[in-house]
Specification:
Order of helices and strands: HHHHHHHHHHH
Distance between the termini: 123 Å
Largest sheet: none
Helix content: 55-70%
Strand content: under 5%
Length: 194
């Protein structure tokens, strides 16, 4: 009888632990809802370059990271700033994947985007583009001492005077010997006719 009661109590304790740990994990529907929420990020520059399977892996990774920090889905969804938290997890995952090397910097700042912004000329060769991205990665790596600093710079990168824009301009000037020419036009007022 003692053995039976002992076995029963051990079994009940195991069931209780399993039940509690299952509550602390997101179910399939909750994970699916988060993946659907993450689809809105598909238009971000880096994520546009991913194939559909790569994007699915990315969303699974971000969902897993969020779940690890916030194991109770309903508490996470209902908290103030939940969407801001998702933003931080997405950008953090992108930065971790990129790690500021020349090959990956092209995902954050694609060549066509830099041409449209007037930072780079059209029709650069592959070697010229690679030189630009190598220069940019070196400037990033020498300026930012941690991934956190780099992450914050990317988040704050909304103006032409940002640190990243300055790095891009410096690399373009160094590599392509660009000289900024300013045409000065004198406007001479016309004398009124009499």
């Amino acid at each position: 009888m003692k053995r039976f009661l002992l076995s029963l109590s051990v079994l009940l304790a195991a069931v209780a632990l399993t039940a509690c740990s299952q509550k602390a994990k997101w179910n399939h529907e909750q994970k699916k809802a988060m993946r659907e929420n993450l689809r809105q990020y598909r238009d971000m520059i880096y994520l546009q370059d991913l194939t559909d399977p790569e994007f699915m892996i990315f969303t699974d990774s971000v969902t897993g990271d969020i779940e690890a920090v916030y194991p109770i889905y309903t508490s996470f969804i209902e908290m103030d700033g939940a969407q801001d938290t998702v933003d931080m997890f997405v950008v953090g995952a992108i930065v971790e994947q990129l790690d500021a090397d020349a090959h990956n910097m092209r995902h954050i700042y694609p060549y066509r985007y830099l041409v449209a912004e007037g930072l780079l000329p059209d029709k650069l060769t592959h070697d010229q583009q690679h030189s630009f991205y190598t220069c940019l990665a070196q400037k990033v790596n020498s300026h930012f001492y941690s991934m956190e600093q780099f992450l914050l710079a990317i988040l704050a990168d909304t103006t032409a005077s940002s640190q990243m824009a300055q790095f891009q301009q410096q690399c373009a000037n160094e590599l392509f010997d660009w000289v900024i020419e300013i045409d000065e036009v004198d406007i001479i007022p016309v004398a009124p006719s009499k």
